Amino acid sequence: MSFLQLGNGFKKIHYGGQTVKESHRKSLTWKFKMNERSTTKGFVKFFGTGGARFVVSTQLRSTAGILLRYLNTNLYIDPGPGALVRIHAAKERFNLTHLDGIILTHKHLDHSNDVNVMIEAMTEGGFKKRGVLFCPQDALDDDPVVRKYVMKNLDGVQTLREGERYSIKDITFSTPVRHVHPVETYGIKFLLNKTISLIADTRYFEQLPEFYSCDCLIANVLRKKPIEENDVIAHLSIEDFARIVTQIKPEVAIMTHFGMAMIREKPYLLAEQLKEETGIDIIAAYDGMRWNF
Ligand SMILES: [Zn+2]
Asked: Given this model, what pLDDT does residue 33 score?
């Protein structure tokens, strides 16, 4: 096989006796648009805004997770089922070999299912050693979600621990507290031009808002109904989210990772209502949403 670059966004590829044209525009669209360059330093792209098993199996919303770009650094967070496919299907194309790392907040399937194929994509099928994986130790120990032979292609693996701080190129972040969730789980506090907190799956607990003080908040709000004291479900409800937002008072608060009942209630309506009640800019994320900061 040989390549011939053409000036019009296509390259000619020779397979044996055949010659085909293939688009290589993908690599050109990773940059900010001209008018965004002066005002924004980064963005969060929501490839998926669904969570929990019914939404995973029906794909009522995508469960692909999110991409964070800051300056020249790209991190993918929680590549759930469909991440690889959704990224390639998106109108605004992203080249996965430009990823610097992947974060798993925890090992549940709706957060980690595509991690192996994403590492393969980041490392060009394992031929280029590249990228760092950040994840809790229990994602690698008992019942691991990352294959050993895939992990070998990474530049490094860093295990997330309570109260630690991590850096990768332009991005620094901390994992302030271990969450109340059936497996080892951490939220992320990104220390960028703004502080952006990402509260991953957890049951609400009293000190939770204090750990995530920030300018901008992203939270996994899976539930419509509040969770009872003895309920086995360990997720935030819309009520918990309201409590967190009123305490932190961020510039903007984005809800994502919706379960079935939340989707039925139309998250944008709940966001509007909450915005009125709290006076804070509340956004319900939707699949494909890009939020610049
Ligand atoms: Zn979970």
From this structure: 59
Q: Residue 108 C-alpha to ligand 1 middle, in angstroms?
A: 5
Using CA atoms, how far apart are residues 101 and 126, in angstroms rounded to an integer? Answer: 14
Question: What residues make up the domain containing 140?
Answer: 28-292
Residue 129 has a pLDDT of 97
Residue 44 Cα to ligand 1 middle (Å) = 21
Decide if 22 is inside a domain: no
200 C-alpha to ligand 1 centroid (Å)? 8
**What spacing in Å lies between the alpha carbon of 105 and ligand 1's midpoint?**
9
Tell me, what CATH number does 71's domain have? 3.60.15.10
Distance CA 147, CA 22 (A): 32
In whole angstroms, give the CA distance from residue 107 to residue 140. Answer: 9
Distance CA 263, CA 58 (A): 12
Distance 246 CA to ligand 1 centre (A): 24
Query: What values do phi and psi take at 116, rounded to 5?
Result: -65, -45
Number of domains in the chain: 1
d(CA 248, ligand 1 centre) in Å: 23
| pLDDT averaged per 10 residues, the chain (length 293) | 40 45 45 65 98 94 98 98 97 94 98 98 96 98 95 97 98 98 97 97 96 98 79 87 97 97 94 96 98 97
CA 226, CA 236: separation in Å to the nearest integer?
A: 8
Residue 217 lies in a domain: yes
- Cα–ligand 1 centroid distance for 204 (angstroms): 13
Residue 57, exposed/middle/buried by CB under 10 A (0-12, 13-18, 19+)? exposed
Q: Is residue 280 part of a domain?
A: yes
The reply to whether 12 falls in a domain is: no
Compute the distance from residue 17 Cα to the ligand 1 centre, in Å.
51
